[in-house]
Structure formats: C-alpha cells, structure tokens
Amino acid sequence: MLRRRLPFSLTVAAALTLGAGLAATVLLAVAVARLEDDKLALAFQQRATVRVAAIRQGLEEAVEVLTVTNQLFATVHPVTRRQFHDFTQPLLRRYPFIQAFNYHRVVGGDERAAMEAELQQVVPGTRITEMGPQGRHLAPPRAQYSVVDYLEPMKGNEAAFGLSVGINTQVMNALEQATVSGRAAATGLLSLAQDQRPQGGFEVIMPVYRPGAALGSAEQRRAALIGDTAAIIRARELVEKILRGSDLHLDHGVLLAVYASASAEPAQLVYASAGLEAAARQRAALGPLRQWTTSGHRERLGAALDVAGQRWQVVVSSAPRPFLHNHPGSVSTLAGGFLFTLLITAFVQTLVQRSRRVQLLVNERTADLKLSNQRLLDDVLARRRTEAALQESEQRFRQLVTMSSDWYWEQDADLRFVDITGGVGEKGGAAAGRLIGRTRWETVAGMQETDWGKAHMAQLAARAPFADLEYETVDDQGEARWFSVNGEPVFDADGVFRGYRGTGTDITARKHTEQRIHHIAQHDVLTGLPNRSLLQDRLGQAVAYSQRCARPVWVLLIDLDRFKFVNDSMGHKAGDVVLMTVAARLRAALRETDTVARLSGDEFVVILTEHAEERLQADVVQRLMDAVAQPVPLGTKEFFVTCSIGVAVYPTDNTPADSLIEHADIAMYRAKKLGRNNFQFYTPAMNDEAQERVRIESALRSALERDEFVLHYQPQVNLASGQVVGMEALIRWQHPELGVVAPDRFISVAEETGLIVPIGAWVMRTACAQNKAWQDAGLGMLRVAVNLSARQFGATNLLADISDVLAQTGLAPSLLEIELTESLFMSDVTLAVELLHSMKSLGVNLSIDDFGTGYSSLSYLSRFPIDVLKIDRSFVSDITRDANDAAIVASIIALAHNLKLSVIAEGVETAEQLDYLRRHGCDEMQGYYFSRPLAAPAFEELLRQRKSLPLSVTAAHAERVEA
Ligand SMILES: Nc1nc2c(ncn2[C@@H]2O[C@@H]3COP(=O)(O)O[C@H]4[C@@H](O)[C@H](n5cnc6c(=O)[nH]c(N)nc65)O[C@@H]4COP(=O)(O)O[C@H]3[C@H]2O)c(=O)[nH]1
C-alpha cells in the first residue's frame, strides 16, 4: 500500500487548468471592465453633457442680464443714476456672481474735467484713473476716455469708479466687437480694479448708442457709440452658482474645469472642481501600481462655449476613483475567476494527484501482486520440489530400508507394534505378523526381569528416546537372534504421546563376532587358553575366593626348557605344536575350576584354588611336570620337552595378591638356574636375588664408562703337541661394591638389556689388541677366542665392527676365533648361513660353543662354515662317570672330524678326562686341569714360561705329583 507522500508539484493538467482559468478570468474581467468602462463613459457623457449645458445656459443667462440692463439705456434717455441703481439692484440680488453693473461713458479729452466734477458729486475726489502695471493711477490726458460712470453696487467697487478702461486692450477689444456687432461681447478673464482678492472675472459689454443715430454699418455704430453697459461677472461664482442651481455641485464624481479661453490655458481657468487639484496631487504622489488601482478609467469631455463672442472651454472629467470602485464587476469577475480557477486547479490537481496516487497505488499493488504471484509460484514450485523430494525421499527411504539391514517399526500409545516395514521377516527371522499387535516385552521372553529390560521399561515410561538397545530373542525357527533397536517417542501437535517409532537391525552376526573377539581378546589364539588379560581377571577372582573361604591359592609359572631351540631349529609350526600339546596336557591335568593361561611365548600360568575336599600339595606340580615331559610327536619324530616351574602361594607372609605372578616368575627363574626341569616355591630370598638382578642391571649401565671390565684369558692347549695354541677371552666385572662379578651373574642381564652389544665390542677390541701386543712381544702366534652373544649376532653392523677391530688392532683375522652358541642361528638358518659366510670371508675362525647341550640336530653343521666344535663341559665333566656322555663326546669328535672340523673340549679338570679326550682324538682342550682363566699379566707369565701339557697321562700324573 502506498504510504509515502508524493512531492508537491503542479501537474500539467492543473497547470493548464490554472493557465486557462487565469486567461479566461483575465479575458472575462477585461471584457467586463470594458463594459463597465462603457457604462461609466456613457454615464459620464450624460453627466458631462448636463453640466456643459447647465454652464452654457447659466452663462447665457448672465449675458442676458446685461442685455436687460443695456435695454434700459436703449429705451430711457438719459438714464439717471437713480434709475440705474434701482434697475440693477434686483438683478444684483438675483445674480450675486455679478460684481458690478457699469455704465461706461465715452468722454472726450475736453470733457474730462466736467466729467470728473460730476463724478466727484457722487464720490468726492474722484478723478479719472487708469490701471497700469503698477496699479491704479491718474489717467493721463487722452483724446477720449471710457470712464466708469454708473456703478452698482458702489460698495466694494469703489476702486473702479472713475476708472478709464480705454487702455485695457481686452475691454476695448470687447467694446469694439460689441460696438460693431451691436450685441454683447465678453472679455477674457480680467484682473478687476475693485477686486481685492485675485479673483478671476470677466466683463460683458454692450454698446449704448446715441439715441436715434443710424446704426447700419460698423462705422455708424462706432460713431453712434456714447458708452456701453457692462456687467462685471465673477466667473468662478457664476459657475458655482450655475452648478448649485442645478444641484450638480454635490456630485463629486464628475470634475469640472472651465476656462475662459478656447483652449485649456491654466491662466484662463475660471473654475475647477474642488477634487480636481487634490486628485492631481494625490495622483502624483501615488506609485504606478496604486495609480492604476486608484485612478482606474478616467473620462474626459471638452466642450467649447460661446460666451458673448468669447470662446470658453469646459473640461469635464470623471473624478479619480479606485479602480475597484469603478469596476466591481470586473474585479469580482477577476477575483471570482481567480478563486474559481484556483479551486478548479486545486480540484484538477487533487484529481490528477489522486489519479497519480491511485496509479502509483495500482502500480504498487500490481507490483505487490506480481511479487505475491511470483512468491506463490515459487512456493508452488518449492512445494512441488519438496513434494518431489519427499516422494523421492520416501522412495529412497523405502529402497534404503529394503536394501539396508534395518527395518522400520512403529508402536501405538500402548506400545504395541502397529507397523513394521523393511523385511523384518527376512532380516530378523521374525514375521511381522507375529509382532504386530504385541509389545516388545511380549515378544522377548523374560525381558521385564532382566536389568536391560527394566531400564528400557523405565525409558518407555519416561517417553525418552533410546538408541542401540541390544537384546537377545528367538526367531520364528527358535534360533537365538540378537537385535539392536533405536526408537524415539512420537507426539502429536498438542504434545500428546502417540507411541514410538524407530529402526531395528539384526546384529546376531556382529554379536557372534563380538563374542569371538571378546574370546580372542581374552584367550590365546594358538592354544585357546586364557591370555594375560583374562588371567588377571581369574587371578582376582581366585584371590577373592581365597579371602572369602580362607583357602590358599597357588600360582604356577611354567616355562618350557629350551623351547627356543625347538622353535628355532624345527620351525615355528613345530613350536606351535609343542605349545598346543603342552597347553592341552596342562588343561587335562587340572580340574575344570582351575585356570591355565598362556602368559607369553613358552610361559604358562596355572591358578590352583584349594578345595575343601582336597589339599593342595606339591604332587600337583609334579603331575604337571610329568604331563609336560611326555614325548611330543613331531612328524615322524618325538621330541622331549621339560619345564621349569615357579610357585607362589597366596596368602603367605608379605605376598600381595598382585605380585603372585611376579613371585612365581622369580621362583621359576631359580628353577631354571638350578638346571631346569624342576620346580621351586617362591621364597623371599629369591626376591633378594631378583632385586640383585635389578641392582646389577643399573650398575651395568655405567660399568663400561667407568672401565670396570677386565678380560681374563684361559689357555687352549693342543693335545698332540701339548703347546698353548690359543686362549679364550672371558670377561670379568670388577664392581667397587659387588666385588668381582662373574659373567654368569651379569651376561644374561646384559643380553636382556642389550648392553651386551657395546660390552661385546669392547671385549673383541681388547682381546684382539692384547693378542697383537703379545704377538708383538714375541709370545707366539696365538688364537684368541671371543664369545659372541645372540644380540651381537643380530646386530646390523657386526661385520663392520669385526673388520674395524682387526684393522685397528692389526691382528691377523686367522688369529681371531669367534665363539657362537647353537641357539644363535637356529631362528633363521638361511640368514645365519649367510651371515656366517660373511664373517668367514673376513678370515676369522668360527667355533660353536657349548656344543651338544640340548640341541640334537647336527644336520646344519655341514651347511655352516664352522672351524671348531667346542664340546660343552657338562659332557666332559661326566665322561669318566657316565657312559652316555662319554659316547656323546666320542661321537661329537668323530662327527666333527668327518666334517673336517677341529674339536676342543672345555671344562677339562682331570687327567682322566684329558686322557679320554686324547684317546678319542680330540684336538684341543681348555680347562682347569691346565689353567684357570688368568688375568693378562698372569697369562703373559704363563706364556713366557712356555707352559705346556704333558703328552701322556702318566707324564701328566707324574707332573701333578711333582707339583
Ligand atoms: N668348572 C669348570 N669351569 C671351567 C673350566 N674351564 C673353564 N671353565 C669355565 O667355563 C667357562 C667357559 O666359558 P663359556 O662356556 O664360553 O661360558 C662363558 C660364556 O658363555 C660367558 N662369557 C664369559 N665371557 C664372556 C664374554 O666376553 N662374552 C660373552 N658373550 N660371554 C662371555 O660366561 C660363561 C661363563 O664364563 P666363566 O665364568 O668365565 O666360565 C668359563 C670358564 O671359567 C673347568 O675346568 N671347570
């Protein structure tokens, strides 16, 4: 809707109307003014004519009065003064504008005195005078005088008595005219001698002839002239009298000017209306605009009169009146027209503006309508799009529901299923028909008694949404199924609860997977036994049971002996078979309630809880060991595996529940140290050992920097020559507090921590340098053997390190022997072969240390570039007591020689042992029998003494006796 105000501007229509209206108004006003002017002119003409006629008549009357007076002289001879007086008195009363009646008598120069005498009789002292420019004066002697003889009334005209007018040209001209014509003749305006005030007057003269004289011609008349009668008329009064007499003096609308001349000469002005001058003055004082508004149209009429032969001019004009006064019609027309025009203009303007406003309004409304229409169209389009989108969405929803694993359900306010779409039958195994009309708890047996069911019922009661509600149910075939449902309450527009709707999905497969994952998460994949996680759980339960029932709990940590060898030498699959077999045997050897878990690698944990009917005894542990020790069939072979077991019991003094496994581990470690294949109960002393391990570990970290290591050297003697041909470098740790620490106490720790790598490098460098030094000292070309740990063997820069050491020390590679244990290369034989060849290519010797300890396979020997076999001292120590060991040693020597390997026996302590070895062709020996490991100076002394081995047992025995 149009609310804004239009700016005011005269519209074209209104402007045209205004222009036309004003023009018409002006034209009409002008026309009316013209009419008014015409009317005024007509009225004026009438009034002017009346006035001119009145004046003409008045003047004629005045002249006529003189004619009457003159008739007196024509008829009476002589006319006495008395008669003249009597005759003129009524006339003077009647015509007050007459100043005087005169009778001029023509007096010759010679008659002057007589005349004066006669005049003096009337007025003593009177002389004949004349009027000059300087006033009245005694008339000079002249041939003839025309003297004022009779004079009525005398009063007021005394100055004229005896006055000779013969020198007054006007009078004389009028007299001549009158004389010649015989009729009255008037002068122009004169200055009268008797007139005190300068008042214009004129004199009308008629001749008086000698009675009886011939008057036929002008000359005769002149000759007959004896005098003349004259009336002195006050022209102004005369005119005033005329006007008053005709009541014309009251009309101030007409102004009158009477001139005693043919033209309107100001000097001859006889009469002027009172308003005439004032009007002229007023007019001059006004501005042009006011002049126009006040004077308006003026009429003027000039009329010529003949006054006794004298031409007079009468000028009649209309009095200046305000234009408005004279033109009420035109002014009214103008005003009315203006007003009307303005009104019409305003009306037109209003109409046009309203029309424009209406037009604008219409335009605006039209625009609004268009906009609304467009919006409507947009709305319709949007709605169509929305509907299409909705349909598409609906279709998509249907498709998605069909394609997805979900189904869609709706429940009424009583929580009964009213609609289930999306194929719950196919997806969930429950036909929709079986569910419709039933509540969820009616379809899930026992739901209301479960925790989740109760919680769900509370959610439903609170009309709360729920998500991922998982529950187990039974499908139409009676199979267990897991469903997961989401739902949210539905309220109508008034907020009234209408039910629930949501989705459901069959998660049976997922649940099974989860259960599997859960099982896997808590069980060892290989053996199916509980893993560390579940073990902790079970241990907690067992401890809790123990606390409740006051019965002990045993924790057994079972570690397979030499399992690494099985794994490495026979492959992982064989190792797995061993582990699975052991696991199964352990499981079979225990009760259902006991727990067997696999802790890691070859470690198992057993939790035994004591029952009321049976006390726990060490027999159980032995039973387990026996079970494990049963031969394990591996393909065509059988493999024997033993185990070491550590046992921790709860409750015992100072054994916290969470340290049970740790204590069992310590005990197992002790069992291992005690030679494997046994079990140990944990004691606090074991804990001390474990703690010592920790101490060693921390001290070991700085031992190298503090230069706390030294090497001892044990001679290796050739059995054939009895000469020292080499030595084994054996490390010693001189700890400031622990004293000299044997390698058995710290080498394993160094291996576990990885410190063996830098320590081993130090040993190799020191041993090579020392050997080179002895060599340089002329103590022989000896071979030095250095132990290589598993960690060193696996180090990437092993070859470079060996090469560097040889290069730096200058020792010939052939004088370095590297001792390797069998276990080093059992994990990856191919890689080991490769690495050994690389090492061998450096020129060093390779020996296998501790040969024969547990690893029964000799097949690899042919593949390895080995130079020496070192028979473990455990075999050597028993060769004289145990026929088995003796046989093993003899066969090792024979085998080595078959493989072109040199054999060295270590741990030779007795002459019998030496003898046996010699007899069986052993190449070299190393042992206390010849020398313990010696510090470098002692070893050097031994070399210098050229100590050697007796070549026969007898000699040796003799030597010993001597010693
Ligand atoms: N009972 C008895 N023992 C004898 C006899 N002859 C030698 N022995 C001892 O037997 C061990 C031989 O060394 P191993 O078998 O390589 O066994 C060594 C070796 O495996 C390791 N080891 C020593 N030094 C090093 C080293 O520098 N590096 C590495 N990786 N291991 C070393 O520590 C083990 C123990 O070394 P040791 O205590 O020095 O013990 C030495 C030696 O003192 C004897 O007649 N009777």
UniProtKB/TrEMBL annotation:
It comes from the Bacteria. Keywords: Membrane, Transmembrane, Transmembrane helix. Residues 467-519 form the PAC domain. Residues 551-684 form the GGDEF domain. Residues 75-295 form the CHASE domain. Its main location: membrane. It is found in: Membrane. The keyword Hydrolase does not apply. It holds the Pfam family GGDEF. Residues 693-947 form the EAL domain. Gene3D superfamilies: 3.30.70.270, CHASE domain (3.30.450.350), EAL domain (3.20.20.450), PAS domain (3.30.450.20). Signal peptide: none annotated. This is EAL domain-containing protein.
